[in-house]
Design brief:
Order of helices and strands: HHEEEEEHHEEEEEEEEEEEEEE
Helix content: 25-40%
Largest sheet: 6 strands, antiparallel, barrel
Distance between the termini: 57 Å
Structural class: alpha+beta
Shape: elongated
Strand order of the largest sheet: 2-9-12-11-10-13
Number of strands: 19
Number of helices: 4
């Protein structure tokens, strides 16, 4: 029978002198059990603590945290846009006879995008040319008449009124001839506008016309963008405007190519802040020879706005674990593992935003076997 069984038996018995003795015995036994249990727990805790202090010492090689000068960067979000973008207008009236491009097609400057029916325009141009030649003939005849009237006026053979009438005709006919020639050139230009050509090299992002559609001069034919170089448009907060300079470097990433980092230089800086958002629009030109970047992409950019000095450690002293960058420092003779907030890299060293000071030393070499709190030799 166990102690607990005896204790239950004593509790169920009627009270008398002997049962009183049993009560005392049971209480003493339970006290002894509790004491032994507590003692056992203390022993286990002591053993665990002893095991912590009994980590083997390790010999490590350390380097001092030193200061490096790194670029000061401003984190911004931006949007990509073509270096040149246009909604190409028809600049001609008529029915579309043919289209030669599709969305996404690369084109060169001068390539034909569409043709408009210009038969009526051709007839108008021919009429304008004939009219111009007629006026030119009248001008030539009038010049001869004017020369003759000059001679007659000198002999007194014509009245002053007749002379002034002929002189006025001689002065107005050249103007009429010039106007007729302008109308003829305009008619010829309208005929030429019937062939719609690309104003610059790029890519067709949208086509708005189909064969048989009637166009007016202000109708859109296609949207064209130039992709190389491409522009990165950034909005700089008012507080950082003074740090933005021409040719400042900017690096950025886009979600379509997370493994690539693109770079450019600031080329265009707006002359005024936007009143609604209190920021300044700047644009960087980015080489895009492989056409990987497209207008409309969002960019996570880092704009260099100066330099600053930060503590740094060797790149080889960093350990990636649980999506964080860590390093081992030696503090009071023991290993101390820290999660670091890192800054830019400068050659073989990486700057530290938070987590390290200049008066400390970090561990280099084999880091895989080190344990936080482990004593060092």
């Amino acid at each position: 029978m166990t102690v607990l069984d005896k204790f239950e038996l004593i509790l169920s018995s009627k009270p008398n002198r002997s049962s009183n003795n049993g009560w005392l015995t049971a209480l003493l036994m339970l006290t002894a059990i509790a004491f032994v249990g507590c003692k056992g727990k203390e022993t286990e805790a002591g053993a665990a603590a002893a095991s912590m202090t009994e980590l083997p010492s390790v010999a490590v090689q350390t380097e001092a945290v030193t200061e490096v000068e790194v670029p000061k960067v401003l984190r911004l979000t931006g949007t990509l846009k073509g270096n040149q973008e246009t909604d190409l207008a028809a600049n001609a009236n008529g029915k579309i006879l043919s289209t030669t491009v599709e969305r996404g097609q690369a084109i060169n400057k001068g390539d034909i995008l569409a043709k408009v029916d210009t038969r009526a325009l051709v007839l108008s141009a021919a009429e304008a040319r004939a009219q111009a030649k007629s006026v030119e003939a009248q001008q030539a005849q009038a010049k001869l008449e004017c020369d003759r009237y000059e001679a007659l006026k000198a002999k007194g053979a014509v009245t002053d009124l007749e002379y002034q009438q002929k002189l006025t005709q001689c002065q107005t006919l050249p103007l009429s001839a010039e106007a007729a020639n302008v109308r003829a050139r305009l008619a010829a230009q309208n005929v030429g506008d019937g062939v719609i050509r690309a104003p610059f090299a790029g890519v067709v992002t949208e086509r708005y016309v189909e064969v048989g559609q009637f166009l007016r001069q202000d109708s859109r034919v296609a949207t064209i963008v130039a992709l190389d170089p491409i522009r990165l448009q950034l909005a700089v907060p008012e507080a950082e405007v003074g740090h933005v300079t021409q040719d400042a470097l900017v690096s950025f990433k886009v979600s379509a190519y997370p493994e690539r980092t693109f770079q450019g230089k600031i080329r265009f800086i707006s002359g005024a802040l936007r009143p609604s958002t209190r920021d300044l629009i700047v644009e960087a030109l980015v080489d895009n020879a492989d056409k990987a970047l497209r207008p409309g992409m969002f960019a996570d950019a880092a704009l260099t706005v100066g330099s600053r000095k930060l503590p740094s450690i060797l790149n080889t002293a960093l350990l990636s674990r649980d999506d964080t960058e860590r390093a081992f420092f030696v503090v009071d003779g023991r290993i101390e593992e820290r999660v670091l907030a890192l800054g830019p890299t400068a050659g073989a060293r990486t700057s530290i935003e938070h987590g390290g000071r200049l008066d400390e030393r970090f561990v280099v070499g084999d880091l895989s076997q080190l344990v936080n709190g482990q004593p060092v030799k």
